[in-house]
Amino acid sequence: MMTDLRLDPDSVPAFYRSYVVRVKEGNALDALRNSGREAQELVRSVPATLADHRYSEGKWSIRETLCHMMDAERVFAYRALRFARNDPTPLPGFEQDDYATEANAAARSPERLAEEMARLRAATIDLYESFTPEMLRRAGVANNNHVTVLAIGFVIAGHDRHHLAVLREHYLSGAAPES
Prior knowledge:
Layout: H1 14-20, H2 28-45, H3 62-84, H4 96-101, H5 110-130, H6 133-137, E1 139-142, E2 145-148, H7 149-172
Helix pairs in contact: 1-7, 2-5, 2-7, 3-5, 3-7
């Protein structure tokens, strides 16, 4: 059963360890469910007047950050699917800044983004619920890093928590609404 599989943080590529250490749950499904709830709580609390707020010049807006979180989850889930299906093809990385400029974030309300995030997370959870323990142990190469399907589930949850912390600390802590 999936809940019996534990992740060794040392088995995660160094680039993703800062995300994985944010996950305290013992299994990927609980981490995905809980981080999804945390994201919903935060996103649904963002006033529309702050949607385009940037805490510094050159930083993503709140909307752009939310779109980035979803783009990354989609990429990570795709990698997990490919590796779980025993596809040995090495997968490329993706340039997050290029994706962010093409996400059409400004045309999407925080409410709509919250709904989309909820549906995306439900689909990711469905995907992870379909994996057998053998599938979760499978691995592949993405962005020149060897990573397991199990680790990717923890990375998705930890990546969310990383950006939720950034949103709380830099965007929503004392931010004034845009006029």
